[in-house]
Fold this protein.
Amino acid sequence: MSITNDATDSGHKALAVQAATTADEGCAVQLAQRLGLPLLTADIDLIHVTRARAVLIVSGQSLSLQQTGRGAPGPVVVDFGSPSMRYRSRSGTSELLGKAVGHGKKVPLRVLDATAGLGRDAFVLAGLGCEVVMCERDPAILEMLRCGLQSAAANSDAWLSGVIQRMRLCSGDAQHLAAKKLQGVDVIYLDPMFPQRAKSAAVKKEMALFQVLLECSANPQDADALLVWALAQDTARVVVKRPSKAPSLATLKPSHCIAGKSVRYDVYVHRKLY
Ligand SMILES: C[S@@+](CC[C@H](N)C(=O)[O-])C[C@H]1O[C@@H](n2cnc3c(N)ncnc32)[C@H](O)[C@@H]1O
């Protein structure tokens, strides 16, 4: 089987699904059907694929996202057990993000990560002890997150499974979340775009893929509307991650900012966390 329909027909302008081996073809067919994406067989070399700019690769229990074409960077996976995720959860990133959401002021702190993406910030927050509801509207990224959570939950590492137990996943646009999902949420966290903000190859690779996939999320007005929605919810605070020199979303002045080297957290305080 080759591409079954034009990749431009789907919601994603440029995405397809491929099985890593013939043994994965059954799962790949199901995923392609579920996402309404074209399917590539395992024998197709992604260097030569031009009709899809990125491909979701099904390999056993894991799912990766790989750009097509010559010179494309390596695949992106959601691997919460990886050394880089562990490092991230103990680094300065975690300290700044923790401070921004008000970690330590209330236990447990309940955070809605309304722009879950690859779940890295949600993982940092859950690592700090927060209970995190992640919301992701992009169906392909949602599948990757789901897959990453499942494989981390099956990991025998007690610390990792403890962290994963504090993470829950919701599908769809955060602005359409049912009211009961927002009940008890203390903080809404937003990281709506992948700006050019980090120099490491790993981040560049992820950014490049997201730029291919998430044209809608890259629309500044889209992010502005999300902040306006978040501020209208009954939570103690809203936190927005921004590139350090970028203006605040919707030109709304935050109560205060927590500044790092390349990112800044704009904190909108409604009331005390208690
Ligand atoms: C920059 S990424 C977030 C990265 C994430 N903080 C991380 O650590 O991996 C932004 C993500 O938010 C999602 N997104 C943007 N607006 C959304 C909305 N209104 N509801 C749900 N997801 C949204 C996009 O699909 C994208 O996956």
Observations:
- The pocket of S-adenosylmethionine is lined by residues 114-115, 117-121, 135-138, 141, 173-175, 191-194, 214, 217, 226 (CB under 6 Å).
